[in-house]
Amino acid sequence: MSEVPAMYGEHALLREKIVATARAMNAESINRGTSGNVSGRIDGGFLITPSGVPYHAMEPADIVAMTDDGHAQRGLPPSTEWRFHREIYRARPELQAIVHTHSPFATTLACLDRGIPAFHYAVARAGGKDIRCGAYATFGTQELAQHAVAAIAGRKACLLSHHGMIAAGDTLDAAFALAIEVETLAEMYWRALQIAEPTLLSDKEMEAVLERFRTYGRSIDT
């Protein structure tokens, strides 16, 4: 079994960032209570929020270091959802951070087994022409982890049936920003559905939007 860092001094900045992100989820009303979880990749594994600890009382030393083979350091138990964090990191080496929330509008859609289709071009911010809703499985199980990997394939975000939302990125800031974006889109889609089924953008248009987003916000060499 590979060893995991047990001291707060290991990955101190990432530990602090995970705590700050977890608190920000509740402050921004995309999560409530102790639901949801946050992680960041490290060499040989990842750091993740502990299970059942209120975010306002969480300290950087409480963040749990885990190995790729699922072993945790001594101390607080990891989030019950550590398995889907591990499996996403295994499947997607480019992703460095994951934010999982039970945000109200995204979870409402997930409880209807509805993903978010191409009703608005910003859906492409999640990396594809839609945001899928993964199949249901009991929380904390390997089965749910497998469903999450399938739902987020080729994307950076997905919903989980009767559960919540996952957003990932190359930094914690990026993952958190995407989580807010997905919740905003879920709210807009839910509101549109109160009037009628919205018309959807074509696959061709979404491909054009995806191409534009690949260079969006980047500096231009002159």
Element-by-element helix/strand order: HEEEHEHEHEEHH
Number of strands: 7
Across the major sheet, the strand order is 3-2-1-4-7-6-5
- Overall pLDDT score: 93
The largest pleated sheet is described as: 7 strands, mixed
Which strand-content bin applies to the residues?
A: 5-15%
**In DSSP terms, counting alpha (H) and pi (I) runs of 4 or more, how many helices?**
6
State the share of residues found in helices, binned by percent.
25-40%
- Unreliable parts: 1-7
Radius of gyration: 17 Å
SS class: alpha+beta
Q: N- to C-terminal separation?
A: 51 Å
The backbone outline, from C-alpha atoms, is globular
Protein model, in words:
- It is a single chain.
- This protein is an alpha+beta fold.
- The protein has helices at about 10-25, 80-90, 105-110, 140-150, 170-195, 205-215; strands at about 35-40, 45-50, 65, 95-100, 135, 155-160, 165-170.
- Strands 3-2-1-4-7-6-5 form a seven-stranded mixed beta sheet, sandwiched between helices.
- Helix 4 (about 140-150) links the parallel strand 5 and strand 6 (about 155-160).
- The radius of gyration is 17 Å and the shape is globular.
- Residues about 1-5 have low confidence and may be disordered.
